[in-house]
Amino acid sequence: MQLRTQEYVLNMGPVHPSTHGVFRMRVTLDGEVVVDLEPVFGYLHRGVEKLAEERAWGGIIPLTDRLDYVSSMSNNFAYVTAVEKLAGITVPERAEYIRVIMAELQRIAAHFVSVGSFLNDCGAYFTPFLYMYRERETIVDLFDMVCGQRLLYNYMRIGGVSQDLPDEFLPALRKTIPHLKQRFDEHDRLLKENEILIARTRGVGILPRETAISIGASGPTLRGSGVAWDIRKKDPYSIYDRFEFDIPVGEQGDSYDRYRVRMEEMRQSARIIEQAMEQIPPRGEIMADVPRVLHIPPGEVYSRIEAPTGELGFHLVSDGSIAPYRCHIRAPSLMNLTALRDMVRGWKIQDLIVIFGSIAITMGEVDR
Amino acid sequence: MANPWVHWAVFTVIGIAFVLVMVIAAIYIERRGIAYFAARVGPNRTGPFGIFQAIADAIKVLFKEMITPAQSDKLVYWLAPAVVFAPVIMAYAVIPFQNGAVLADLNIGLLFVIAISTLSTLGVFMAGWSSGNKYSMLGAMRMVAAVVSYEIPVVLAMAGVALLAGSLSLNDIVLAQQRVPFILLQPLGFLVLFLGGCAEINRSPFDLMEADSELTAGFHTEYSGMKFAMFYLGEYGEAVLMSTIIATLFLGGWQGPVLPPWLWLLVKIVLVFFTMVWTRATLPRVRIDQLMALAWKFMFPLALINLLLSGIEVLAWPQVLPLYLIPVNLAALVILVLLWSKLYRVGGGRVEV
């Protein structure tokens, strides 16, 4: 008797433990092997770009909080630098330093979340995940100290930041950074050279250098493929040209490389924060002279920063009114997701989860 | 007890009570243990130190609705939880709690344990098949593949113990460890049994059948209410059973100084189970092809070598094994494991599609 086999479609998501939100994958499987994958997204679409057209320039900042909700500070930063570039506003020195410190702390916090959930996807039952959340908590406490919020900060303003650092902030930061650096080493001792983790991630889900560039990948996903591209160095914005740091890159572009790049980036961010702590002016203005109702002369601008997930760009068009005529957001998560189908074909369903986790998207940003 | 009926009645009650109490204890140890490993507190509100949490959960789960999916195979779907849980209790019929304190001292006790504990797999596959859910089916298929592969090294490791003890009766095996527990004489066999046992009862890092990050809940995705609780009981029951088997075969069962024998058995079971909890809290999960490769390329040859070594040792010293074999066997374990880890790459890679 001849037994017939047949491919079947498994619908993973939008409600699934490992889809990082409400992502949905229609996976065609041959037994355990992924034959084809069709990503479906839009379950978290809130129309942020359209909503932005209805609001005054300053009122868009809370909307940007909700893009990549694990890195609100970076989103704030990307938007306000774009508006400042368009309106020609110069930001006071102290505010620039505060912004850089916040953005780098946010990068560490966001990488904790993505690495933690990646390791959870690999099957390490919540231990590394919760360790990383414990560390993230110390950073969230610092944000709480500065702006009173723990997730959606709404901290930066066009021309500066909403409030100055409280007196206890810098001493607390000085204590937190060495603690965090010690914790990075601790995490590496736990899983960096773990046989099972290496067997599960080394060589799995390779994103070749050329593909990574051609799909417009950015951030750790691109650097994991061996491209030393970091906007903080290649197209410096704010005051990033004053700091010394390295761009960690991977070798093969596999899941393990992306995980390592994130771990190294956290160390580099800690380095930047240490330098910024030394250089920050002890006191001074934190807001530029910006009119309450901001009219920006007609024109358009594209401005980008290095967010934790990659190149976060804002394309703003002004028609001279109090609100943008058009606000387009270049979301790195969406771009990085483009190669998912090619990366997972031929791998097993368990690898699919690992590869997807190693790209580390946030649905708030993909769907906007 | 002269009357066999009284003997059976007493030990049936003891066996069932022991399983249920140990399952509750195991759930508590696992939840609190994993919580502490993961820098959490764990359940600590129900009773002193949260020891009644499992009971509270059991009461809650009793009142839950039991959902039967429309596309399911009803009869099989209803039977599956019982088929998973019943063998666990049955296997305790031959476990000695102290010298002679056993429901039935079968002269093929070891064989009975192997045969009965494998029956649970049938229940898992029934659950996966009848649910009419693709996640369940995938989980069940993985379970069958894993158990079929791991049964062989596990049985071979147990055969080594039978060689040393010269008997298949579990009571005799424990008595044979009077002088020295078999873990020292057969460390390789212990390793194979522990790893294979973890894979068979679906403990991390081999928990591919439920793999919550991939298959949501694997074979019991569709189950709810008391039927889910039966799977839960069965899962921890199997873990306790495997710990008991390892404690009996390799750690000297109820043997030990000062403390009463049943307490020694308890301590050893908890010790083995705690090692499993520790593993689960630390390690990532292996992939299905790596799981298979580990069974066939790594554990199967090692189990055969272990059997061969113990055979030679038993032949050379027919009366009693000299103690200087302990370091020799430990060295053999280290050398063989290192050699094999160099010889084989575990698992395949990408398939062309």
Polypeptide structure, described:
The complex is a heterodimer of chains A (368) and B (353). Chain A is α+β, with helices and mostly antiparallel strands and 368 residues long. Chain A has one domain (8-367): Cytochrome-c3 Hydrogenase, chain B, CATH 1.10.645.10. Helices cover 47% and strands 13% of the residues of chain A. Chain A has 15 helices and eight strands. Chain A has helices at 48-53, 61-65, 72-87, 93-121, 127-147, 169-191, 195-201, 209-214, 220-224, 231-234, 255-279, 332-337, 340-344, 349-359, 363-367; strands at residues 8-12, 24-30, 33-40, 156-157, 160-161, 299-307, 310-318, 324-330. In chain A, the strands form three sheets. Chain A has a three-stranded antiparallel sheet with strand order 1-2-3. A three-stranded antiparallel sheet of chain A has the order 6-7-8. Chain A has a two-stranded antiparallel ribbon with strand order 4-5. In chain A, helix 3 (72-87) packs antiparallel against helix 4 (93-121) and helix 6 runs antiparallel to helix 11 (255-279). Chain A is globular. In chain A, 51% of the residues are buried. The mean pLDDT of chain A is 88. Chain B has 353 residues and is an all-alpha fold. Chain B has one domain (63-343). Helix content of chain B is 68%, strand content 0%. Chain B has 13 helices and no strands. In chain B, helix 5 (134-165) packs parallel to helix 12, helix 8 packs antiparallel against helix 10 and helix 10 packs across helix 11. Chain B is globular, with a radius of gyration of 21 Å. The interface between A and B is large, with 41 and 35 residues.
